[in-house]
Amino acid sequence: EADIYQTPRYLVIGTGKKITLECSQTMGHDKMYWYQQDPGMELHLIHYSYGVNSTEKGDLSSESTVSRIRTEHFPLTLESARPSHTSQYLCASSEFGRTSGGRGTGELFFGEGSRLTVL
Amino acid sequence: SQQGEEDPQALSIQEGENATMNCSYKTSINNLQWYRQNSGRGLVHLILIRSNEREKHSGRLRVTLDTSKKSSSLLITASRAADTASYFCAPHKMGAQKLVFGQGTRLTINP
Q: pLDDT tens for residues B51-67?
């Protein structure tokens, strides 16, 4: 069972509100990721991190921002939520990273997701 | 593109039958991974096959890999209602430190 946790699982908020989706892992993984997924659709990588103080934009442009101050924590923030941000957000981590010398299989461990609805 | 493309997009079978899903990709890979996603949940890693392997088994799962054709298949034998989920393949491109996912195959097991 993966030791990666996301909160909240469900969130319904009004337009213009600031929200932060939390993601924490206890596996000591270097790499962490945020994916966005609409129901029945593919996952889109929106942010990833190689390690502390390292963040990169993913393949899909997103108005959200992330930070990586601690290895185990990778929160995602939306400064002003809009209905177009309604989606499921999935956090994942992996042992494969630059700081591990490139070793590892790249297997991802996912959290249960945060389903965001913006009214 | 790094992502795999799953085929078919949807598959519906009777409980007890075998389910086969295919994946095609375009790049050289270190390994190829299969994941399952139950409705509304996160993805769960099922099985990984390395580029120098041709076949791998795990319980009722059998994965094959043909690097010359850049394709893989996932076979679930003796399917159960609990196997109803979406299945994604993820080719791990050489040198890459991220995985890209396609739309997956939505598998429905009918009782």
A: 999 999 999 999 999 99
Phi then psi for residue B81, to 5 deg, are -55, -35
Q: Give the tens place of pLDDT for each residue, A23-33.
A: 999 999 989 99
Angstrom distance (rounded) from CA B85 to CA B80: 11
In sign, the C-alpha dihedral spanning B22, B100, A44, A74 is: positive
Q: What's the confidence (pLDDT) of residue A105?
A: 67
Identify the helix (H) or strand (E) that includes residue B105. strand B105-110
Whether residues B45 and A107 touch (CB distance < 8 A) is answered with yes
Q: Rg of chain B's alpha carbons, rounded to an integer?
A: 13
Closest in A42, A45, A96 to B104, CB measured = A42
The closest of A58, A37, A16 to A115, measured between CA atoms, is A37
Q: Does B104 touch chain A (CB under 8 A)?
A: yes
Beta bridge partners of A117: A12
pLDDT of residue A100: 42
Q: Give dist(CA B52, CA B45) in Å, integer.
A: 20
Whole-angstrom distance, CA of residue A81 vs CA of residue B6: 33
Q: Does B44 touch chain A (CB under 8 A)?
A: yes
Residues A44 and A60: beta-carbon distance below 8 Å: yes
